[in-house]
Design brief:
The protein is of the alpha/beta class. It contains twelve helices and eleven strands. The radius of gyration is 19 Å and the shape is globular.
């Protein structure tokens, strides 16, 4: 049986939907959620819904019982909280006899990265290696779905600012990343233990601005700003301080070249490459 954690989250939901397609139904598929009431639609489709809360490790023994493959979807929150949650899930999976863990990691796990996300995923990958449980690391690139938040009102004409400098990165939608993750989870065997789920081409944010301009017919420009200035702006917009700092650090990692990676791993799993930036911009901004 395959179990997907965090199935009430955005990425988790997409993974479950893609697994139903891959498996040809819901037999052999389970999910672990904190709030089962929010997963009633999944239960109604025949998916086994189990209660599992990473902050309450005692709930995970039953959640992971009888599971062969665990799709461990990374959680949200400040770095120490996330690392502790992931550690609890890995320990519980090992104790439950899970045979294979597939973890949704991040393309940047560099030790010298300014990104808090890199630190979280680097620590989790290390815990997975130390666990002795066979694993597959699925390192996601930046979500294309976050571009409207990054570009903001500038999509209607104007400029947007990020601390990404002249750095380059790729963008893939959550839905497409879920397609690759589900393909890995459903595969009877995998060729390697680490897959970098990237776009085919990386772009700087001047190119992102040009793609948004093309999609909207409005003149959009990108302006680099210092990391601390951007974090203060996000806090002023109401983001919690930890999240504001984490997002600023993410774009600083782009500026430092930590996300400038291209791989054919997505196509190897899915059978075709992810959509290019022009298509994503049309979908996200044209309306």
């Amino acid at each position: 049986m395959i179990l997907v954690t965090g199935a009430n989250g955005q990425l988790g939901r997409h993974i479950v939907s893609q697994l139903v397609l891959r498996l040809g139904g819901t037999d052999g598929l389970a999910v672990s959620v904190r709030d089962a009431a929010r997963a009633q639609d999944l239960a109604g489709r025949g998916i086994a819904v189990r209660h599992g809360d990473f902050d309450q490790p005692h709930t995970l023994a039953q959640a992971f019982a009888g599971i062969a493959k665990l799709v461990l979807v990374s959680t949200d929150g400040p770095a120490p909280v996330r690392i502790a949650q992931h550690g609890a899930a890995i320990a519980a999976a090992r104790a439950a006899g899970v045979e294979h863990i597939l973890y949704t990691s991040f393309i940047d796990v560099a030790a010298d990265s300014p990104s808090e996300f890199a630190a979280v995923h680097r620590a989790t990958e290390a815990m997975l290696r130390d666990s002795g449980v066979p694993m597959t690391l699925l390192r996601n690139t930046l979500y294309a779905d976050l571009l409207p938040l990054a570009v903001g009102a500038a999509a209607r004409g104007g400029s947007f600012s990020l601390p990404a400098g002249e750095g380059r990165t790729g963008f893939v939608s959550r839905g497409e990343l879920a397609e690759a993750i589900a393909a890995a989870a459903a595969a009877p065997a995998l060729a390697k233990d680490t897959y970098e789920l990237t776009a085919q081409v990386t772009h700087d944010f001047h190119e992102v601005a040009a793609a948004v301009s093309q999609a909207t017919g409005k003149a959009v420009h990108y302006q680099p700003v210092p990391q601390d200035d951007y974090a203060r702006t996000l806090q002023g917009q109401g983001l919690p301080p930890w999240l504001a700092q984490a997002m600023a650090g993410l774009y600083a990692a782009v500026a430092a070249g930590k996300c400038n990676r291209v791989s054919n791993d997505f196509a190897a799993l899915v059978g075709h490459p992810p959509r290019p930036l022009a298509c994503l911009a049309q979908e996200l901004f044209a309306a």
